[in-house]
Amino acid sequence: MQLNITQAPRDFWGGLIYLVIGTAAVFIAADYERGSLLRMGPGYVPTVLGYALCGVGLISVVRAFLRHGDRIMPFAVKAMLLVTVAVVAFGVLARGAGLVPAVVVLVAVSAWGSQLSRPLPVLLLAVVSSVASWLLFTKGLGVPLQAFGAWFGF
Question: What is the pTM of this model?
Answer without folding.
Answer: 0.60
